[in-house]
Amino acid sequence: MRTCEEPRPPNGQSPIALAAGQSEYGFAEKVVEGMFIVVNSITIKIHSKAFHASFELWQLQGYSVNPNWQQSDLRLTRITDPQRGEVLTFKELTWQTLRIEADATDNGDQDPVTTPLRLITNQGRIQISLKRRTKDCNVVASKLMFLLDDLLWVLTDSQLKAMMKYAESLSEAMEKSAQQRKSLAPESVQVSHDLDV
């Protein structure tokens, strides 16, 4: 993966829905949501102008859960609001070991940061809530929670400095994305304002 200097255009409709020949939340989405995924290992490499990072996951599992974060009947893993035209779904990802390593790139700074940042966790999970519009499957809101059982991390001064540079680099990309969202928002705000009058 590579971070973008400029934000990409917004995603269109759900590729699952398009492949199934439908334009709204329906059977194809429910089938994909009902899948139980088990992956032995995953390696992800990320390149940015400020750093290179790698994520390694072992024994990853992904599945749907109910609002209490428990596995149950799939019909209880989503809440549909026909009045608002939205559906709320709940997912959980668990893993046995996660290793994250980030190292600064040589970007010509006078004070280069070269100490790699390493983080190892055992028995962690991510809980994901997604709110989507049923008419086009676009995500309206989302929430992620990271829950870690064990955290093995040695943090030195130079690593803390490196972490600040990585965060600064990512915040620039996130800020550009937020500006893009705001520039596209006035059209939809104007439409909703006209409807209220």
Automatic annotation (TrEMBL):
Residues 177-197 are annotated as: Disordered. One of its GO terms (molecular function) is histone deacetylase binding. Coiled coil: none annotated. This is URFB1 protein.
